[in-house]
Each structure stands twice: as structure tokens, then as C-alpha cells.
Amino acid sequence: MNRFQLLGLTLLAMSPAVFSQTENTSESTQIQASTGPVTVNSSQSSTLPNASDYAVQISDLDKNGDGRLSRREIPATHALTFEFRLVDRNHDGYISATELANWK
After folding, report:
1. 14 beta partners
2. Are 101 and 57 within 8 A, CB to CB?
3. For residue 53, what are the β-bridge partners?
4. Does the structure show a pLDDT above 90 at 4?
5. What sign does the dihedral 58-64-65-70 (CA atoms) show?
6. Measured between alpha carbons, how far is 23 from 5 in angstroms, rounded to an integer?
């Protein structure tokens, strides 16, 4: 058994313990392929692990009180850090209250 197979089996064995902590919604669909029937199973967590990030207000993160957010004011692990360019619609380097409200 090679390292990748061992890693895959380890992750597979751990996944029920890791993913059982969140509630999942699942769906199963059966389609007919040229080789026979195929069942497609999918699942998604019903709650986001960082859902509180999406309920943030300017005042929650605005350290200097100017009514807008710069990259420096947002914690490194916050969802806004990763989506800053998307949320900053006018690309001025700051997120306004209007831009933040449109992100949610």
C-alpha cells in the first residue's frame, strides 16, 4: 500500500468523526448512463462554520472609527479577508457600510 492510499484511508476513517459534528443535508439522484444506472450522492452542511462572519457590522471591526473597513482592520481568519476584493465594489481599498450590506 502506498502513502497516498494510506492517507486516503486515514482521511476516510476520520471523516465520520469530523463531519458528524455538523448537520448535513443530503440528496441522492439516479441517472441513466450508457453503461447503466448511476447514483449520485451529495451532501452539504446546513450551517456555515463561519456564519457569524456574514452577520458582521462595520462597527464590529472598525478600529479607527472612520466608518469604513480597510484590510488592516479585518482579522486574518475572517471571511472578509478572503473576499475583500469582491466586497470592495468600487475598488477604493475600503469597505463601506453599503458594500458590506450588499455582501450578505
Report:
1. none
2. no
3. none
4. no
5. negative
6. 28
Q: How many CA atoms lie within 13 A of 34 on its CB side?
A: 0
**Which sign does the torsion angle of CA 7, 9, 14, 20 carry?**
positive
* Under 8 Å between Cβ of 40 and 33: no
The pTM assigned to this predicted structure is 0.55
CA distance 49 to 45: 9
Q: Which domains are delineated in the chain? A: 51-103 (1.10.238)
> What's the grid cell of residue 90?
468600487
70 and 59 in contact (C-beta within 8 Å)? no
Q: How many CA atoms within 13 Å lie on the side-chain side of 70?
A: 5
